[in-house]
Amino acid sequence: MPINTDITRRNLMALTAATVLAPAGAFAQNAYPNGQITFICAFPPGSGADVLVRYFADKFAKVSAQTVIVENKPGAAGNIAAQYTARAKPDGYTIYVHSGTSTAANMSLFKAPPIDVVKELQATSFINKQAFMFLVAYDSPIKDLKELTAMLKQKGSDASYATAATSGKVLGEVYKQIAGVEPVEVNFKDANDSLNDMLSGAIDYGVHDPVFALSQAKEKRLRILASGSPVRLKSIPDVPTAKEQGYDIDQLGWWGSFVPKATPRPVVDRINALFNEILAQPDTVAFLGKFGGDVYVGTPDEGQELLAKTVEEWKTYVALAKIPQN
Questions:
Q1: What's the pLDDT score for residue 78?
Q2: Rounded to an integer, what distance in angstroms lies between the CA atom of residue 201 and that of residue 151?
Q3: Would you say 253 and 17 are in contact if contact means Cβ atoms under 8 Å apart?
Q4: pTM recorded for the entire structure
Q5: Residues facing residue 186 across a β-bridge
Q6: Before 33, cis peptide (omega within 30)?
Q7: DSSP secondary-structure letter at 229?
Q8: Residue 94 near residue 160 (C-beta atoms within 8 A)
Q9: Which of 90, 76, 83 is nearest to 40 (CA)?
């Protein structure tokens, strides 16, 4: 049967035109992911952050059907990892999994941050919400923040408290100003390093991360008085907030995932969908809950807006807490 060359030529021309006119992002979206993906962790292997990043790397590998590896790039409070991600090829194969709060805070904590996180990183998903906590020794007579405040007013500058992270330092300073108390801050390299001093009574209380706080409360070494969250978190409904005890504190931290700013939007949306699929799984809810975190789901645009908002908030926090820039 003879071939109608005119029809064939027209069909070929139509196909070529469709290919040229089709949005490039559509092909990127359909193709992604199709190769090894690297998750960047800002802390060393074995750290609490590393445990979280590796959990999500394993889950991401399953939902994407791709190999996912973790590269640890610790140092400079996360700046090394953030800069590495920002300079990576913007194709979705390098994903930074880290605290959005810390990422934003570094813009104020350093005199010359290596990158502008809002301009050079793109949020792809949220992961969780969590809050730092106020703690006293388990056998302390202090049962809530009001009792702590009363004791601190009696002791004045003879009182002291422990911190080991920037979020704890800021939360501690905000509480002091609201409560009108003058305890002396004692900064430790790690929350665990402050435990003996808190148990012995050498230090009156601590303001520490939820992983440390919950583990020590479970062992009945320390008692949690309050969290800095404005509302009780679903994962820890028995932990009261400072706000419900009369202290107007709203310091809720969050984690998310980030890619280089120029990453195509279809790829960003695909990463968001994959993370949201992971966050919907009951074992993920349970995993985050063990560390005092609630699952946090949102769009890339919402993530980027919160990143920018957190940058501005931390300008005020750092000034308030009189934290010297590095």
A1: 87
A2: 13
A3: no
A4: 0.79
A5: 162
A6: yes
A7: S
A8: no
A9: 83
In whole angstroms, what is the distance from residue 285 CA to residue 280 CA?
Answer: 7
Q: Please, is 42 exposed, middle or buried when counting C-beta atoms within 10 Å of its C-beta (0-12, 13-18, 19+)? A: buried
Classify burial at 190, counting beta carbons within 10 Å of its beta carbon; exposed 0-12, middle 13-18, buried 19 or more: exposed
Q: What is the CA radius of gyration of the chain?
A: 24
What region, left, alpha or beta, does residue 136 occupy, with left being phi > 0 and alpha being psi -120 to 50 degrees? beta
What are the pLDDT digits (tens) for 273-301?
999 999 999 999 999 998 899 999 999 99
User: Which residue is associated with the tokens 């809720």?
Assistant: 252
Distance CA 98, CA 192 (A): 22
Amino acid at 253: G
DSSP 236: -
Write the DSSP symbol of residue 225. E
Q: Which two tokens stand for residue 277?
A: 């699929």
Q: Other C-beta atoms within 10 Å of 107: how many?
A: 20
DSSP code, position 241: B
Q: How many CA atoms lie within 13 A of 64 on its CB side?
A: 30
CA–CA distance, 184 with 297 (Å, rounded to integer): 38
pLDDT at 24 over 60: no
CA distance 47 to 139: 29
Q: Which residues pair with 71 in a beta bridge?
A: 40
Q: How many CB atoms lie within 10 A of CB 296?
A: 21
Beta 253-260 vs 94-99: how paired, if at all? antiparallel
- Closest by CA position to 218, among listed 239, 204, 234, 249: 239
Q: Are strands 68-72 and 37-41 parallel, antiparallel or unpaired?
A: parallel
How many residues can be counted in the chain?
326
